Amino acid sequence: MGIFGSPEPRGLSPSLWFADNVESTGRVIGEEMHAPFGMIQRLQQLPMSLKILTYAAAAAAVLALAVGVGVMAAFTLGSDDEGSPEGAKPERIEGANPGRDGRSQEDAREKASDAPGDAAYSNDLAGIQNRAVEASLGSNGKLLRYDGITAEDVEEMEANYVALESYARRAKDLAPPAKYEDQHRVFVHAIGELRDADELAYRLAADPSSATQTDFEAYDRHMDKATAYLRRSNEMLGEDYETTGAAQEVSF
């Protein structure tokens, strides 16, 4: 039995038999390696028109193969996206969260229902503030010419004080929305300071003999506090209603 699994021919030495087998194998391999080169040579010997047709057919085959691979890849990726939770469309994600939509609608309804209440509160407050500021500035102007105050001036200052007492009560009786409760407390303090200032102004005008420098300084402090409160109230309310910023100090 030979090395390659075939019986050794009789009469040949092992070395001669091996050399013969190697030569045969080499011829077979050589013929296989030369086959592609023979095909290339045959292609080169074809007429030019047949060469062009052959190259075109090869190019079309390559293109068709590339397109087919691309389609298969796209189909595979598309299938993966559809099956993946991350590929879900935004509409489906939003639709899967009814709780958030419900809260948004509820918030919108609350804002819509609060709007009339906010407007009514703001309008009532503006009416009180504007009239209170007007009355207070009127008394301040008369007090600035203290030496020339007349009986008629005293009556007007009394009327202003009475009006401010009414405005202070109305300010306290306002029913603010929950978000304006802190602002309302500031507003009540502002109108209260205007009332106290006008009460003092009326007393100084009605009884000049009892007036002291301390009384005039106290009046100025009430007016300063009222102005600061009114400005703060406006900021908290987001409005620009009139304040007593134009009032002048009367203390000497």
Tell me briefly what this model is.
With 252 residues, the chain is mostly helical. The chain has 7 helices and no strands.
Note down, in words, how this protein is organized:
This protein is mainly α. The protein has a domain at 116-237. The chain has helices spanning 14-45, 48-83, 90-95, 98-144, 151-173, 181-206, 213-237. The termini are far apart. The model is unreliable at 1-35 and 82-96 (pLDDT under 50).
Taking all Cα atoms into account, the compactness measure Rg is 52 Å
The amount of beta strand, in percent, is under 5%
DSSP summary: helix tally? 7
- Output mean pLDDT: 76
CA(first)-CA(last) distance: 140 Å
Measured as a percent range, the helix fraction is over 70%
Number of strands: 0
Order of helices and strands: HHHHHHH
Q: Which structural class fits the helix and strand makeup? A: mainly alpha
Shape: rod-shaped
Identify low-pLDDT runs.
Answer: 1-35, 82-96
How would a textbook summarize the main sheet? none
Layout of secondary structure:
Elements: H1 14-45, H2 48-83, H3 90-95, H4 98-144, H5 151-173, H6 181-206, H7 213-237
Question: What are its keywords?
Answer:
single chain, 252 residues, mainly alpha, 7 helices, 77% helix, rod-shaped, disordered N terminus
